[in-house]
């Protein structure tokens, strides 16, 4: 079972124009959708990115909004994991003795709490958390 980071979800957007990383495409094609989960933090990151794009490029922003609302949210419905008290407490331990990125720590804590493998390009952001990692980009 996997916790899909926002950079992997964003890469999946590129499939329709043939520009997606082939490792990500292969991983996605060979993994059951029901095995893929997303953190609420990744939903926040994607929404934030779309809001910023909508301000600069209305057409591309509208395309991203459509993809997000009509593909991503329905695909992961029921498999978007919240930041629970258990996740928050586990996340606090990841910051001591060395503080880390709040978002990455919350994603790592979510994966640790639910015993999931984080699927991400950004291995270095998670490598000291003890979470299992998979980089489909390589």
Automatic annotation (TrEMBL):
Q: Keywords on this record?
A: Hydrolase, Magnesium, Metal-binding, Nuclease, Toxin-antitoxin system
The cofactors named for this UniProt entry are: Mg(2+)
Q: Give any GO molecular function from the UniProt entry.
A: nuclease activity
Pfam families noted in UniProt: PIN (PF01850)
Q: What is its EC number?
A: 3.1.-.-
> Could you name the domain of life of the organism this protein comes from?
Bacteria
Question: Which segments of the protein form a coiled coil according to its record?
Answer: none
Domain PIN spans what residues?
2-123
The answer to keyword Iron-sulfur applying to this record is no
Q: Does the keyword Magnesium apply?
A: yes
Which InterPro entries is this protein grouped with?
Answer: PIN-like_dom_sf (IPR029060), PIN_dom (IPR002716), Type_II_TA_system_RNase (IPR050556)
Under PANTHER family, the record lists: RIBONUCLEASE VAPC2
Family of this protein: Belongs to the PINc/VapC protein family.
The name this protein carries in UniProt is Probable ribonuclease FitB
């Amino acid at each position: 079972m996997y916790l899909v980071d926002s950079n992997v979800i964003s890469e999946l957007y590129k499939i329709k124009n043939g520009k997606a990383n082939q490792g990500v495409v292969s991983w996605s094609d060979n993994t059951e959708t029901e095995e893929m989960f997303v953190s609420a933090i990744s939903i926040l990151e994607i929404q934030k990115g779309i809001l910023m794009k909508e301000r600069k490029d209305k057409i591309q922003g509208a395309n991203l909004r459509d993809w997000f609302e009509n593909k991503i949210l329905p695909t992961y419905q029921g498999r978007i994991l919240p930041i629970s008290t258990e996740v928050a407490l586990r996340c606090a331990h990841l910051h001591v003795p060395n503080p880390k990125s709040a978002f990455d720590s919350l994603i790592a804590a979510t994966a640790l709490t639910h015993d999931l493998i984080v699927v991400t390009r950004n291995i270095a952001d998670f490598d000291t958390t003890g979470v299992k990692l998979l980089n489909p980009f390589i």
